[in-house]
Amino acid sequence: MNIIIIIISIIFILIAAAVMFACYRTRHAGLFWIGFTYGASGVAALSLMQAWPLAAGFSMVWVMKMMGMESEVKEEKKSGDS
User: Fold this and answer.
1) 69-81 burial string, b = 16+ CB within 10 Å, else e?
2) CA distance linking residue 6 with residue 49, whole number of Å
3) What is d(CA 61, CA 52) in angstroms, rounded to the nearest whole number?
4) Looking at residue 55, what DSSP letter applies?
5) SS3 for 30?
């Protein structure tokens, strides 16, 4: 069980790094809080070696996304489109 917690925690930390990079590029405050939550839950799960921080962090991020804290994807029009 410890191996699964370690793997998922590392995935959460990598997701946090990617979201923080996106936050740096877009300056969207919601992405900062989503990345912070992923990172904090990943680090907490690694330090406690329990799975509940991962479940709590995932559910908090899910609630944040439902509240609209995630940035919207903007589609670019191509020059040939009208």
Assistant:
1) bebeeeeeeeeee
2) 8
3) 14
4) H
5) helix
pLDDT mean over 76-81? 68
Q: How sure is the predictor about 68, in pLDDT bands with cuts at 50, 70 and 90?
A: confident
Q: Helices (H), strands (E): how many in the chain?
A: 3, 0
C-alpha to C-alpha distance for 50 and 35, rounded to whole angstroms: 20
For residues 74 and 48, is the Cβ–Cβ distance under 8 A?
no
Q: How far is CA 20 from CA 1, 17, 25, 45, in A?
A: 29, 5, 9, 19
Structure tokens at 54: 């991962």
pTM, entire model: 0.83
End-to-end CA distance of the chain: 55
Distance CA(47)–CA(57), nearest Å, equals 14
